[in-house]
Design goal:
single chain; 407 residues; alpha/beta; Rossmann fold; 3 domains; 5-stranded parallel beta sheet; 16 helices; 40% helix
Length: 407
């Protein structure tokens, strides 16, 4: 199941998953223009393309119930914000943090690591997961544009808890309607509250209240971060400060973020009709490595360092297999894979994603956009050849007059 949010809204998608009692993952992607202010510390997980900044979310399901929601890829600041409320001092070391994403969603793995080390107890973990699910769905149910893909598959393990979709969606939908009533004084969870008139505050409010406002409304923490630190939902926090904003004692601000031709050497089909492999990677040495491994084995290997150039040339080249890096400027590997899968010419072509990190969330996302397999860099001769031969019928292809693709 996939489509655009202009055709079906998130609530309806969630209802379909619940009715079908599906197990799997929902990926939602949206593009925000630079005028749509985002907080500064989100730039690590939002990739900018021209005037557009992309954001994505995952929702994980088990038998039609929600078990977790992930914003972005691997940022752990959300959980750290909640841990602050519980005054958790001891956290994981750098090596432990680096290993989180290999077998699980990083945030989810982080929580379980804290549980296993008795740094937090199950009640705290359950509360944090509920808050993360709430804030993610609050954003998703507010979306009106974007795209989505739902893929059935294995659920996250081990399972901590789950929520029925209908009650939590109904509650959040009601909160969104109340949130809209705060506009235009409050517009986004990413706005930063700060003091506007300290003199008026001190003359109008008790000293204890003023001290609290000075502590929390420092112009550095967003409304969403405040909600995490206080372990409250975003609507409760927004309503609490709304009267002060109306009076002009507080103000909300945003953080400061804010035609190729086919080369002659590729224009004609090789007379021997070799198996053709295209590698798209912005690192030149990767393309050279692929060529040096495949060419001696009888393959035709063509490397591109510019993803836009590769897209313009890949249709006339009609490769039998595509190797595509995930992290690239202008277009990333997920976008390239999704674009190619929308073309009938490449619906069955093996597409192998290349990445410098073996992360669970990357593998899930690659699968959801239609990738065939996944190869971690750096790789050796045997690893690459084994993977290529797995998806290409070598005996029917190499050195013969007839190309043959397996899929």
């Amino acid at each position: 199941m996939q489509g655009n949010l202009t055709e079906i809204d998130i609530r309806s998608i969630l209802q379909l998953i619940e009715l079908g009692q599906r197990t799997g993952q929902l990926l939602v992607e949206a593009c925000f223009h630079n005028s749509d202010k985002l907080r500064e510390n989100e730039t690590a997980r939002h990739r900018q393309t021209g005037n557009c900044q992309k954001q994505f979310w995952f929702v994980f399901f088990l038998n039609g119930q929600i078990i977790y929601c992930q914003e972005g890829d691997s940022n752990l600041s959300r959980i750290d914000d909640y841990l602050r409320h519980y005054r958790v001092e001891m956290k994981l070391g750098e090596q432990q943090l680096a290993s989180l994403g290999s077998q699980n969603v990083p945030e989810y793995g982080y929580l379980w690591a804290l549980l296993e080390r008795n740094i937090i107890n199950p009640k705290v973990a359950h509360s944090i997961v509920h808050s993360l699910v709430y804030e993610t769905l609050f954003d998703l149910l507010s979306l009106h544009q974007g795209s989505f893909i739902f893929r059935q598959g294995a659920n996250l393990t081990p399972q901590l808890t789950s929520w029925e979709i209908a009650p939590i969606v109904s509650k959040i939908t009601q909160h969104i309607q109340e949130w809209k009533q705060l506009y235009p004084h409050i517009q986004s969870p990413e706005q930063l509250p700060m003091l506007a008139d300290i003199v008026q505050l001190q003359s109008s409010l008790p000293a204890a209240t003023v001290n609290k406002l000075q502590h929390w409304a420092d112009g550095k923490k967003s409304l969403r971060q405040l909600a995490r630190h206080l372990n409250r939902d975003i609507l409760t926090v927004a309503k609490a400060i709304y009267p002060y904003i109306q009076q002009g004692w507080l103000q909300l601000v945003y953080s400061a973020t804010s035609n190729l031709k086919l080369p002659t050497q590729y224009s004609e089909v090789d007379s021997q009709q070799k198996v053709r492999v295209v590698c798209i990677d912005d690192t030149k040495t990767i393309g050279e490595t692929v060529e040096s491994i495949l060419k001696p084995q009888g393959y035709e290997a063509i490397a591109f360092t510019n993803p836009l150039e590769a897209l313009s040339l890949i249709f006339p080249l009609q490769p039998d297999l595509i190797l595509c890096d995930i992290a690239m400027p202008e277009l990333d590997g997920y976008e390239i894979c999704a674009m190619l899968r929308h073309s009938s010419a490449f619906q069955n072509t093996p597409i192998i994603m290349l990445t410098g990190k073996d992360q669970f969330i990357d593998r899930v996302r690659a699968t959801m956009v239609g990738a065939t397999d996944y190869l971690t860099k750096p790789f050796g001769d045997t690893e690459l050849l084994t993977l290529v031969e797995k998806y290409i019928n070598v005996r029917s292809c190499v050195g013969t007059q007839t190309k043959y693709k397996t899929c």
